[in-house]
């Protein structure tokens, strides 16, 4: 399946079977990780076939079982780090999650506490931070779709545009994709505003848990849904 299809198929799964990832799945994800690390200066790492891929770390939210595979989303957190590391991690991580789904895997975003103090199989160097991770594998049971805010709330439009109904089709497609994006506690703390010129979109993180990560995830969804040829970011 393509990434748009994967977006619709993806639902959070927290309980996994012992079925291992295939060599093809590992190879595809490893190649994408290498590209993302080289492009964005990240240190994302794939852990697979571990007894406990969380390394004993407690999770911020949700109970997990049978997690043998993990994408550790790591980046610089020093004087040279980008201001938007959380947003970048959200964007890159969701791209990996969608590719994983496209290749037959189930996934769930997770925030791990005390990542530097437990026996994780990732390498977290001095001056680095792991804002989040993605558990992946074969789900013990299917995930369920989440509720979403109304489209008009996720995607307001400038007065010059009129109403959400009067916005172009590409904007509707982008907001529909944002509605499918995972977010911390399902709160969707993001907003995408179509500005007066009808082709510029302002993306904002609102108050909420891990809102910058959520924004990065949602921006990827918007780009995939709307098509980057139709708009520019404010």
TrEMBL record:
Alphabetical list of InterPro entries matching this protein: Nitroreductase-like, TM1586_NiRdase
Pfam family, one: TM1586_NiRdase
Source taxon at top rank: Bacteria
Chain ranges of the Putative nitroreductase TM1586 domain: 2-226
GO molecular function: oxidoreductase activity
Name of protein: Nitroreductase
Lineage: Bacteria, Bacillati, Actinomycetota, Actinomycetes, Bifidobacteriales
